[in-house]
Amino acid sequence: MVGNYEYPHIDTLNIIQVGWNIQPSLYGDNKTHFLIGWSTDGYSSTGCFDLKCDGFVLAKHAPITPGDTLKGKSKMSFKIFKSKDNGDWWLHFAHAGQKFAPVGYWPQSLFNSLKFYSNYVSWGGYTTSYGEKRSPPMGNGHWPGPDSAAFQDMQYVNEDETTYRPGPVPGLQSWVTNKECYKVSDFMIDHFSYGGPGGCTN
After folding, report:
1. How far apart (Å, rounded) are the C-alpha atoms in residues 191 and 139?
2. Cβ-count burial 177-188 (b if 16+ within 10 Å, e if not)
3. pTM of this prediction?
4. In this predicted structure, what is the pLDDT of residue 8?
5. How many of the other CB atoms lie within 10 Å of CB of 121?
6. Which residues contact residue 49 at a Cβ distance below 8 angstroms, ignoring those fewer than 6 apart?
7. Does residue 193 sit in helix, strand or coil?
8. Using only C-alpha atoms, what is the Rg of the chain?
9. Nearest to 193 by CA among 135, 123, 128, 127
10. Residue 27: which residues within 8 A CB-CB, separation 6 or more?
């Protein structure tokens, strides 16, 4: 997630999200799908996921389309950056071993504060369950470790579109809402692992 807002005013949240999602209510199946999203008010009344509203502009010959099934691919790379030429927010994508290719962009005109810069970046996962249903696994269902889901080779993108590793950055912190079902490892310069079996009802 890349965003701009002043805590705790969620109604001012300008946000871009990219990742993968299993959500039968959205896709009608239990497969893993490529997901994007955007909003200018914390999804209160603006924005959407994938291409369900106007906003994201799909590039010609994009390597993947938002909402596509990932078809068993276990490693993928994303790059989100603000174009120094016109201020649009671009998304590039690559499967493991392939070169980045443009998926499309969110026009600068969509946003308020994010039109100028981002003051918030987040990597991670989340799950949802309703009523008394137990929460689903996160990642691949393993606790953080060598065999769990992970974010790797994480980098920030400068204004000139060069990249650098986060390293020990002030303000960089982990956040877990329920440690009985999910955990996250320490941040290791440019990677961390995360996940858990789920099973929570609160």
Report:
1. 15
2. eeeebbbbbebe
3. 0.90
4. 77
5. 15
6. 17, 26, 35, 36, 37, 66
7. strand
8. 17
9. 123
10. 21, 33, 67
Q: 187: Cβ–Cβ under 8 A, 6 or more apart, which residues?
A: 166, 172, 174
Q: Are 195 and 142 in contact (CB under 8 A)?
A: yes
Per the CB < 8 A criterion, the answer to whether 38 and 19 are in contact is no
- The predicted-structure confidence for 56-103, as pLDDT tens digits, reads as follows 999 999 999 999 999 866 789 999 999 999 999 999 999 888 899 999
Long-range contacts of range 70-76, CB-CB < 8 Å, 24 or more positions apart?
Answer: 70/20, 70/31, 70/32, 70/33, 70/34, 76/20
Q: Residues of 60-97 as b/e, b for ≥16 C-beta within 10 angstroms? A: eebbbebbeebeeeeeeeebbbbeeeeebbbbbbbeee
**Contact status, residue 135 vs residue 192, Cβ threshold 8 Å:** no
Which one-letter amino acid corresponds to residue 37? G
